[in-house]
Design goal:
Helix content is 16%, strand content 30%. With 128 residues, the chain is an alpha/beta fold. It has a single domain, classed as 2,3-Dihydroxybiphenyl 1,2-Dioxygenase, domain 1 (Roll), CATH 3.10.180.10. A four-stranded mixed β-sheet has the order 1-4-3-2, with helices on one face. Strand 7 and strand 8 form a beta hairpin.
Amino acid sequence: MFHDSQAFSGFSTDDIDAAEGFYRDTLGLETKRDEMGALELHLATGGLVFIYPKDDHQPASFTVLNFPVADIDAAVDALTARGVTLENYDSGPMQADAKGIYRGRAADMGPDIAWFKDPAGNILSVLQ
């Protein structure tokens, strides 16, 4: 039914200007404002994500955007150099290392992954 649909994803923010600065300047993504004032993120895959302003925004309690990388250590180093704080979730069988990376591959428990938040508190990740 939706085989040819140009699907896209979206989530909200409480500060569209802060979101634009973060996604463009901190993460290096191509951004554009649409005619309604929402922020378009243009992903390397050709995908499109809309971030829209919402007065009663509540941050997502789940990961809204994942960034696969070839070298998670380098990606985490670049994020922390740009002032991004990694999340440390103290639950489950895996624990983050000193860099804030959960080493899932060594434990045969999924990818190596690190989580962080955008200015509105939405959860993002880098994973290898």
